[in-house]
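Q: For a teaching session next week I want to show students how multiple molecules come together into a single three-dimensional assembly. I've collected the sequence lines for a complex. Could you give me the predicted structure tokens for the whole thing so I can convert them for display?
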Amino acid sequence: MTRLRRLTAFGVINALLLIMLCIVTLAPFLNVLAKSLSSEQAILMGKVTVLPVDPNFRSYAYVLKSKDFFRAFAVQTIVTASGTALGMTLTLMMAYPLSRTRLTGKNVVLVMVVITMIFNAGIIPNYMLIRRLGLLNSLMALIVPLCFNGFNMFIVRSYMQTIPLSVIESAMIDGAHHAQVLCKIVIPFSIPVIATISLFFAVTYWNDYFNAMLYITNYRLKPLQLYLREIIYLALDPQGSVGTQQTSESFMFVSPISVRAATIIASTLPILLVYPFLQRYYIKGIMIGSVKQ
Amino acid sequence: MNTRRMMADIRKDMALHILLFPPVVFMIVFRFLPLTWIVMAFQDYNIFRGLAGSPWVGLHHFRKLFSSEEFLLVFRNTLIINIYRIVFLFPAPIIVALLLNEIRTLLFKRVVQTIIYIPHFLSWVVIAAIFIQILSVDGGLVNQMLMALGIRPVPFLMDKRFFRGILVFTAGWKDVGWNTIIYLAAITGIDPNLYEAAMVEGAGRFRKMWHITLPGIATTVIVLLLLRMGQILTSNVDQVLMLYNPLVYEVGDVLGTYVYRMGLGKMEYSFGTAVGLFNSVIGFVLLLGANALTRKLGDRSIW
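A: Of course. Below is the structure for the complete assembly, covering every listed component.
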């Protein structure tokens, strides 16, 4: 049984405003997407707005033939996967002990974590450390700076604190060690928050370019975001730097703008594909995080 | 503290302490150890001589800082850009949340939310790339529309008059949608009985919003506002670095980008560290102030 809704002026304006918001959000995307599928002449003549003109996949073919693109993509993926795994592990290792009601030294460690959340030594001191550890131009330099996150740890800890104490206590009375409690009770219980925080980590790693900019000069280790920056900011040719030969033919048909657009879209695709999952878990995580004990 | 008792407790929970050990070591090495390099700010740091071998210069860099025109410019830019952001981008998510709250059709609401959350997940490299495209002189969407109206194309990103606006707009494009989440959550925390009572009293939509919704989220708004103001000297380096260029340094160069360019780029490590330290300390003081103020409001506090 549906009630008929009155069409009020406010209701209409409200909806229109929100629709406009959506348009402003989507338009830049659609424009870049359209450009990636259009011909160079159409772009330069200003014919492309949100729909492709002279649609073709040449730009994508050009980008996908680029070894540098795939190498950068692979690097970013490896860093994201390892970083998320390492970060999640460290987070769990820290959250569980700190979620217990009584532990010697617990408060000391908690205060230390809070301090790391407020103070950052700064770009230069961090650079000095990485340099001293000999991690310049290594993937570890990209993984390490982001894998310890106090906020994430607190979220997981809050979640773990909602496990009824009786469950853990009865397990320990039955002779379970801490390790067993962790693996057989706490972790299975925490799967939702693990999923969420893993996504937090993954998105952070996938989108990071600053660490790469600071620590990586070896072109073979350049991750995708840095690669993308070079294509856009410096208008470099995706196939240009190393390896793949360009035939004079491919040069004739392919446009810088259209190719740049295609590179942008290709770099964004992973996030957009994972987005539906992200939305659900990410928002849940925010909710958990913003509820104070 | 009874030592024997403490040792017994530690032994009992040994597994937990072992679990805690690697992350704590990690934290010490990668978060606390770098703090020791902060002394560079008080030295004339020589990278070959290291911390021990570099001469001490005390507050020399800080004095240089406060008398440097460049620094004052950068400081001013950081402050102004943050003020613009607070003025425009703080109310926006609240308004959008209120609008969304009034939507009755669930499908429409969900679709809108899905769309406006997307930009939050993109990196600044991608967002800058998109907007560089949009704002470019040949083939950029905005200039295309201008030309259709008979106006000559404008190189927006290289124009000092528009750069700060672009920074604010792109920051909004990325996060206004996302920031509605916390306000929507706050709104759902309001007692629905209040709305029922208001409806019985014959209150219209605006009345309800004014007397129920807004006061209901007032605490959240104020806490967030205070926290945001505590960040009034943050630099959003990721964004600016991708969008700026020498032509707009005068209006767009912020503390973070200045440290990056001067400190690392020009290898003035000591000076860069001094600027960074100054930034961190002020940020910390502001945060304490903001927290103290929110605590005065009663229940909420960041800790």
